Amino acid sequence: MKVFNLSLSTRLLIAVSLVLTAFLGLSAISLNNAFESSAESEQKKRLKNYIYTLLTAAELNEQGELIMSNDLAEPKFSIPNSGLYAQITNERKIIWQSPSALGHFLVLPFNPGPSQEHYAVVDMDAGITLQNLAFGIVWETDTGEEIDYTINVAEDMSTLREQTAGFQRSLWYWLGGTGLMLLIAQWLILRWSLRPLHDAAVDLHAIETGEHRRLNDQYPKELKQLTNNINALLDHEESRRLRYKNSLADLAHSLKTPLSVFRGELAGSRDLNELKQTGYEQLDRISTLVDYQLQRASTEGKSSLLAPVSLGEIIHKIISSLDKVYQTKHIRCQCEIERDAYIHADEGDMYELLGNLLENAYKYCHSQVHIIARSVNDTIFIRVEDDGAGIPMRAEGFVIKRGHRIDTQAEGQGLGLAIVSDIIMAYEGNINLERGHLGGASFVIELPRH
Q1: Which is more confidently placed, 25 or 109?
Q2: Which residues cross the membrane (predicted)?
Q3: Out of 29, 102, 110, 236, which residue is the most buried by the measure of CB atoms under 10 Å away?
């Protein structure tokens, strides 16, 4: 199985298991090393204490010879093969050996020097390994003569190894059990933590099957932005589907009239030229209807996923083109556009909206057009006015009416304002028609910035 096919919970569980195993393994090694170091240090302390015990039991006789008491404070020195051995030497000559070493030949280090200590691991016969401490002393006789002695105390390391092995078994037992419980707890935590993602997948499947329309709102704040964007995308797509559906229905309804006229002319007219003229008129009308409904259906509409576009840049490009088209009118265009006049919208929709408004202003003005674009909080305000004759009072209500169809538009306004009205409606904005300061029409548009 490829790693890319693993679920998030499986990946996290594998990662946590590896990290936990490495952590517990390193902890076990560290604790074991610490225990071995502590046990070895403790053994060396015991050996030094045994040295002091032997020194208290040693004395010189009248001949200046070192003799040891038979009653030693540590009973292991008197028990054969007890694992604790002692030996006193002088110039490579064994002066005394503990009864516990009976039957063993101890090859122990010699004098390390006066008041010096020397630790060494010594291998004996029969595979026995000893930890030995050699301690050098100088004994002064009654005559003032100084005699060098070396006291060797050795302890079998099997006891230390048994303690270490027992500690290792306990350590691995407890760490293994703790690791298993931590893995189980981590698995439960991961299931609980990743539950919202599982719920989101279930909700998305329900949306695919048609059981739900949107994701529910009961998600943690870390997923809130994601689910809100998904809901916004779903709403946007549903809105587009609805616009396509309505546009097709409106197109079918709008085509009935020109087709009926054409059919009637075909059935009743005998003048070929009159029939051709009527046919061209109705075909032009059908073409205009199709263009309008296609533009209406392709409008993106409000969506939180759209990137911000600059209204100032769009307006200046449109004005640059219109100045060339209406060059003979010598139109003076004044722009007041804020630097931060940005809106999250489809760039094509904004070109269509502003292009239609500005083209109308250039077309019906005498010589002046005034454009204002500014942002207030989360709203973009756009005003386009001209010094033309304005829109007749009887047509003002129809021109800005939302959803108004082309076949009932005010005379002379064409498709432009109908498209503008539909785009503004798709973005949940507002459009108002006022009397401008220049004397002509003034369109005021409000659009949500996001």
Answers
A1: 25
A2: 171-190
A3: 236
